[in-house]
């Protein structure tokens, strides 16, 4: 009897050990799908590869719509007590996530020299939106800048040098006039330039405002300068491209259709995210170039895209797994692979030293432009109560572009609304 009980005890202990070995820590990972391309397949493969290499964890990707839809979903889940373990969200969501007490600082998990070196490995420009109050709240993964794409064939048809994009605001106007085509009835069939003003109007506008030495918000996220004369002047230039010079579509231009308009030769030049690079390369049936944005008083573009955040209500084991996954995702070779497959900027200088990215860039030099623009980049607009403060600017931009308000009045009204929203944070 004693032997039987002993054998049963050994069997039970073995079953417990087997169960423990089979137990995995689930890491729910919300990922926004906001631009074209087979991104979900890439993320699925990353999750499968990580899970295979790290059998204690099970990363579960959840595709959550646009960035705007994703932030709503994760905050709703946070308030209900069941947030994801981690998510890629706009870097500009940092203030909101901290104000909602939804995330933990990445610093909490930095314990070794290797951890500290990893934290120092990213491009400094990409860390601007993820750090404040002496802490790092998110690390870059899916990052971008705004760049200019131009159709070399249409440049040649217009008598322009196909290898020379506009260098400044005046060039944009002169080239845009030559590139704008009309039919016999006077209807425009091809625009010289197209800059989208839906989806992320504030982000595209930051190209203009930065180039005119306008900074939209302070680093603490407590004050904006929408009505600064430099900002109003930048908006007037954008409005004039359409209303004065007739080289840009009137009214609100859709974010999602702008790459397609470019590929269908409805626009000879466009501004959009470098995250559309692989999509355009795959689908454009013509030779095209990519350049830094034309300069006004200076060169400039906002950084953009998403950071990796870890949620506060996840268990310690889940958080530790998410941190391990963040480090794994941003390893130089993987960051290089992500850049090649999507067009986003690889987040560290080391990624550009990999054989894979060196070879890719040698054959496709357009892929290096966004990286080279980083020294001229500024932090993307981000404040406390960011969604509403940004909406005030977006509404003002669209009011000016549609002619409902003058640029000066539109920015005055946007400033008043932002002041009201930010009053309690000062």
TrEMBL record:
Keywords, comma-separated and alphabetical: Signal
Signal peptide range in chain numbering: 1-23
UniProt-listed Pfam families: SBP_bac_8
UniProt-listed SUPFAM superfamilies: Periplasmic binding protein-like II
Gene3D superfamilies: Periplasmic binding protein-like II (3.40.190.10)
Subcellular location: Periplasm
A GO term from the CC aspect: periplasmic space
Record-stated family: Belongs to the bacterial solute-binding protein 1 family.
The protein's name: ABC transporter substrate-binding protein
């Amino acid at each position: 009897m004693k032997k039987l009980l002993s054998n049963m005890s050994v069997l039970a202990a073995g079953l417990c050990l087997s169960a423990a070995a089979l137990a995995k820590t689930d890491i729910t990972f919300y990922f926004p799908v906001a631009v074209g391309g087979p991104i979900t397949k890439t993320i699925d493969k990353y999750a499968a590869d990580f899970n295979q290499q790290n059998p204690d964890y099970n990363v579960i990707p959840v595709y959550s719509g646009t960035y705007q839809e994703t932030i709503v979903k994760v905050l709703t889940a946070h308030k209900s007590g069941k947030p994801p373990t981690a998510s890629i969200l706009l870097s500009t969501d940092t203030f909101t996530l901290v104000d909602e007490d939804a995330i933990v600082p990445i610093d909490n998990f930095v314990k070794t020299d290797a951890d500290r070196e990893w934290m120092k490995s990213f491009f400094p420009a990409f860390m601007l939106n993820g750090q404040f109050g002496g802490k790092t709240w998110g690390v870059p993964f899916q990052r971008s800048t705004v760049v200019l794409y131009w159709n070399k064939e249409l440049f040649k048809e217009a008598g322009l040098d196909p290898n020379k994009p506009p260098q400044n605001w005046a060039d944009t106007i002169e080239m845009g006039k030559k590139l704008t085509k009309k039919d016999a009835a006077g209807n425009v069939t091809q625009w010289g330039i197209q800059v989208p003003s839906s989806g992320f109007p504030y982000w595209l506008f930051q190209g203009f405002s930065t180039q005119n030495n306008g900074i939209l918000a302070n680093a603490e996220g407590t004050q904006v300068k929408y009505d600064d004369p430099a900002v109003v002047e930048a908006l007037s230039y954008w409005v004039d491209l359409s209303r004065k010079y007739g080289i840009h579509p009137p009214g609100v231009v859709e974010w999602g259709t702008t790459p397609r308009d470019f590929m269908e030769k409805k626009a000879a030049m466009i501004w959009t995210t470098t995250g559309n690079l692989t999509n355009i390369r795959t689908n454009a049936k013509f030779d095209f170039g990519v350049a830094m944005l034309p300069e006004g008083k200076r060169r400039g573009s906002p950084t953009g895209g998403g950071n990796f955040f870890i949620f506060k209500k996840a268990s310690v084991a889940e958080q530790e797994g998410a941190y391990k996954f963040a480090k794994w995702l941003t390893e130089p070779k993987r960051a290089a692979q992500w850049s090649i497959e999507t067009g986003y900027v690889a987040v560290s200088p080391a990624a550009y030293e990999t054989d894979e990215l060196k070879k890719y860039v040698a054959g496709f030099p357009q892929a290096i432009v966004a990286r080279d623009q980083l020294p001229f980049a500024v932090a993307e607009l981000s404040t406390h109560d960011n969604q509403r403060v940004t909406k005030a600017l977006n509404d003002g931009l669209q009011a000016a572009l549609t002619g409902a308000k003058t640029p000066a009045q539109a920015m005055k009204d946007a400033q008043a609304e932002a002041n009201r929203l930010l009053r309690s944070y000062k």
